[in-house]
Amino acid sequence: MRKAAGRTASGRVRGETRRRTLESARMLFNGRGVARVTTRLIAETAGINEGNLYYHFRTKASLVVALFAAFEEEAAGLAAPDGAERHELAPHVEVLRRWFVLTWRYRFLFQDMAAVQAEAPSLRPRLVRLSARLQAETRRSVADLAEAGLIAIPPGFEEPLLANVWIVSSSWIGFLVLNERVRAVRETHLRWGYNQVLSLYLPYLTEPALVALAALPEPSFSGEA
C-alpha cells in the first residue's frame, strides 16, 4: 500500500513539473519568441534544473510540439454551434471570441510561424489538418446562419469571404508584428483582431442579424494570460 501511495505521489509531482514547465515555456515563447528562448531559461522560470526539464522534454522542439498539442486540443472545442443554437447569432459570435482568446494564449504560434516550423518541422502536416478542420467549421457556421436568414451572401462571394476570414483569423498577430511594427502584441490588440474578422461579415448580415448583433454585450477579453 505504501509503495502504491508513493508511486501515486511521485506521479503527481512529475505531472505538476511537466505542467509548470509547459506553462513557463508558453509564457516565454509568447513574450520573446521561440528562437530567443533557451531550455535553460525555461527550466529557471519553472523552478527546476535543466536535467529535470530534459527528463520530461528532450528538446526545445518537443516543448513546442507539446504546446501545439494543447492548442490543438483546445481548438477542437471551437466547433460551430449545434441544436437550436445553430440558428442564433450569439453562439456563433461567441465561438469567434473564444478563437481570439485561444490565439492570444498561444500567440507564439502565430507571431512567427516560420520560426515555429523551423524548430518543429513535424508540425507542418498537423497545421494543415487543423487549418482545414477549422475552415470547415467556419463554412458550417455560415451555412447555418444563412439557413436562419441571418446572413445573405451573393453567389460567388462565399468562397472569398471564407478564405479572407481564415487568413485574417490566423494571421492578425503576424500582421501587427510585421506591418504595424508592433513589438509586443498585447491583450488590448485582441479586440482589434476580433473586429477585423467581424467587419468581414458585416456587409452580408441581414437586418435581423444586425439588430441581434447590436443587442449583444461588448465581448470581454480581460484577464486572458
Structural write-up:
The protein is mainly alpha-helical and 225 residues long. It folds into 2 domains: 2-58, Arc Repressor Mutant, subunit A, CATH 1.10.10.60; 64-215, Orthogonal Bundle (Tetracycline Repressor, domain 2). It is 70% helix and 0% strand. It has 11 helices and no strands. It is elongated. The mean pLDDT is 90.
What is the molecular shape?
elongated
Uncertain runs are none
What percent of residues are in strands? under 5%
Total number of β-strand segments? 0
For the record, the CATH class of the largest domain is Mainly Alpha
CATH architecture of the largest domain: Orthogonal Bundle
CATH H-level superfamily title of the largest domain: Tetracycline Repressor, domain 2
Q: How do the SSEs run, as a string of H and E?
A: HHHHHHHHHHH
Biggest sheet statistics:
none
| Radius of gyration over all CA atoms, rounded | 20 Å
Helix segment count?
A: 11
Q: Indicate the mean pLDDT.
A: 90
DNA-binding region: 38-57
Keywords: DNA-binding, Transcription, Transcription regulation
Pfam family, one: TetR
Protein name: TetR family transcriptional regulator
